[in-house]
């Protein structure tokens, strides 16, 4: 019997208003039904927004450090449940245990950071231009925030958004990806256990076109924070523009890693394999292009193909497995479409993979072989479009300048990396790469919770998650002038 999961609205667990449900299955073993979840309606979203709106006033008036105390408890419960959460996450979306433990840890780090930040929601004070007058500024919460999250980091990304939103005094309506409703439910249960007041966090399961759109289209929702595809992000921004709604978008990437002739090749190899095939390539920070300087091209390509061929695929719950499945059949099909596109591109050569992985337990799920194309030229579709799967394009470049040009020449700009021992090359890369994140001698993945996370160009709309920067998104500045002169002092006039 599959477990039946529910929405969480106004402090109560409940079904969708029309009783409809959808299934959640294990991508490593599709016959493993994890549970059914409410396929929510516009009416459910409406109730959740009403609950969040009603809860807002007392939540915003609670001292911020008291809100932080709840977030600290959330972090502590997550520490206790880390292994359980990691296992449930692997079962739900497939990435290996090592990575799901990391995903939960990122949530824990974010909880403790947010708890501390509630004592540091600094404003600025500055002297007035007039005597006997104070100028202050302080952060104010926005109100109800709509949180729409993807399936590839089902714990970390919701926490990146929800915890700072709460720390700032906002209330939340949370719609997780329908591929990972289980992990989201566990997160909300933890918030409940930690004592979050009713209505402050509401969970509404279901599809983006109904639940997500209803959140974006409701004027009572002050802000939307979304991580997902650029296509959906643009639609959200257009719909939200009608209400001049604040929107934070973390979208696609086509991240490249440069390996220079002088690089430590063994280290670079480890980084490319981890960046390209970790999470089965399903990260917005995945290494989907590697740009090799000519002097090491042939040698490094061979190392890369050998390493990719030796990766062990399987159920991520098995600790000896390197790469889990794609999240769904549709995702695997879309990855394979890109292999077919690559095969049709002039001069691109399939070095390994290029097909679903079959045989034994691999037949039970949506596995795809780690795939490498060499001879890829700038401008090819497999070089430009986000694939979100285990497909790596290898491009050759003669100089650092050319490599950086190729790296920059996409519509995206999230993560990037360069391997070199030459400090001058590293400095030029730091200066000239157009991306939100630059790694020197490290993989394109591995963001830390207390640093800004986000990208330039079509990767986003200028906001950053993580660190101190996300607190700017979830708060509004209020400017206060206090005049104790006993006169009506006119700025710009009386003093000049
Ligand atoms: C993502 O790639 O979708 O940088 C988010 C990382 C993670 C977050 C990535 N901590 O690897």
Sum this structure up briefly.
With 496 residues, the protein is of the alpha/beta class.
Whole-number average pLDDT? 98
- Our count of helices gives 14
Cα(first) to Cα(last) distance is 79 Å
Please tell me the total number of domains: 2
* CATH level 1 name of the largest domain: Alpha Beta
Largest pleated sheet:
7 strands, mixed
Strand arrangement, major sheet: 15-16-17-14-13-18-19
Q: Count the strands? A: 20
Strand content: 15-25%
Q: Report the CATH superfamily of the largest domain.
A: Aldehyde Dehydrogenase, Chain A, domain 1
Uncertain parts? none
Which small-molecule species are bound to the chains here?
2-aminohexanedioic acid
Shape: globular
- State the CATH topology of the largest domain: Aldehyde Dehydrogenase, Chain A, domain 1
The gyration radius over C-alpha positions equals: 24 Å
Helical proportion?
25-40%
The CATH architecture assignment of the largest domain turns out to be 3-Layer(aba) Sandwich
Describe the structure.
The protein has helices at residues 42-61, 64-93, 97-117, 156-167, 181-193, 208-217, 230-241, 265-277, 294-309, 329-344, 381-384, 400-408, 423-432, 470-473, and strands at residues 3-4, 7-9, 12-14, 21-26, 29-38, 125-127, 133-141, 144-148, 171-175, 201-203, 221-227, 246-250, 255-259, 287-293, 349-352, 371-374, 391-397, 415-419, 437-440, 475-483. With 496 residues, it is an alpha/beta fold. It folds into two domains: 7-251 and 460-479, Aldehyde Dehydrogenase, Chain A, domain 1 (3-Layer(aba) Sandwich); 255-440, Aldehyde Dehydrogenase, Chain A, domain 2 (3-Layer(aba) Sandwich). Strand 6 (125-127) and strand 7 form a beta hairpin. Helix 1 crosses helix 6 (208-217). The model has no long low-confidence stretch (mean pLDDT 98). Residues 106, 152-153, 283-285, 445-447 line the site of 2-aminohexanedioic acid (UN1).
């Amino acid at each position: 019997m599959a477990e039946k999961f529910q929405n969480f609205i106004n402090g109560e667990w409940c079904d969708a208003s029309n009783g409809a449900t959808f299934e959640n299955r294990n991508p490593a073993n599709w016959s493993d039904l994890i549970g059914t979840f409410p396929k929510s309606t516009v009416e459910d979203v409406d109730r959740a927004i009403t609950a969040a709106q009603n809860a807002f006033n007392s939540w915003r008036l609670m001292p911020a450090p008291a809100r932080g105390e709840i977030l600290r408890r959330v972090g502590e419960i997550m520490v206790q449940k880390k292994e359980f959460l990691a296992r449930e996450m692997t079962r739900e979306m497939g990435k290996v245990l090592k990575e799901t433990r990391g995903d939960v840890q990122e949530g824990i780090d974010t909880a403790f950071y947010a708890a501390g930040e509630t004592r540091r929601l600094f404003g600025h004070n500055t002297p007035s231009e007039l005597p006997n007058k104070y100028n202050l500024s302080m952060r104010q919460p926005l109100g109800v925030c709509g949180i729409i999250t993807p399936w590839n980091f089902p714990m970390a990304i919701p926490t990146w958004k929800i915890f700072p939103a709460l720390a700032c005094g906002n209330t939340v309506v949370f719609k997780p990806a329908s591929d990972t409703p289980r992990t989201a439910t566990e997160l909300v249960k933890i918030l409940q256990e930690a004592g979050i007041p009713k209505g402050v966090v509401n969970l509404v399961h279901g599809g983006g076109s109904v639940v997500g759109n209803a959140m974006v289209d409701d004027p009572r929702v002050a802000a939307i924070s979304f991580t997902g595809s650029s296509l959906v992000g643009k639609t959200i921004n257009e719909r939200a523009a009608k209400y001049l709604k604040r929107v934070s978008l973390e979208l696609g990437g086509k991240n490249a890693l440069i390996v220079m002739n002088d690089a430590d090749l063994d280290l670079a190899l480890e980084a490319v394999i981890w960046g390209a095939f970790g999470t089965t390539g399903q990260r917005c920070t995945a290494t989907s292009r590697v740009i090799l300087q000519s002097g090491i091209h042939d040698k490094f390509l061979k190392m890369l193909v050998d390493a990719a061929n030796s990766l062990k695929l399987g159920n991520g719950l098995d600790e000896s497995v390197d790469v889990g499945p794609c999240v769904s059949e549709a995702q695997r099909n879309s990855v394979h479409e890109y292999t077919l596109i690559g095969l049709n591109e002039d001069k691109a050569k399939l070095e390994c993979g290029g097909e679903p992985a079959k045989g034994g337990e691999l037949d039970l799920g949506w596995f795809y072989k780690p795939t490498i194309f060499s001879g890829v030229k700038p401008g090819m579709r497999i070089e430009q479009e986000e694939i979100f799967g285990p497909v790596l394009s290898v491009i050759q470049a003669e100089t650092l300048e050319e490599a950086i040009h190729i790296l920059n020449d996409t519509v995206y700009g999230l993560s990037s990396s360069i391997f070199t021992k030459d400090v001058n090359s590293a400095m030029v890369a730091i200066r000239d790469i157009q991306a939100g994140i630059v790694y020197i001698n490290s993989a394109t993945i591995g963001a830390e919770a207390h640093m800004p996370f986000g990208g330039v160009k079509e990767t986003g709309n200028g906001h950053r998650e993580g660190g101190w920067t996300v607190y700017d998104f979830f708060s509004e500045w209020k400017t206060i002038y206090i005049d104790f002169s006993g006169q009506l002092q006119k700025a710009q006039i009386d003093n000049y």
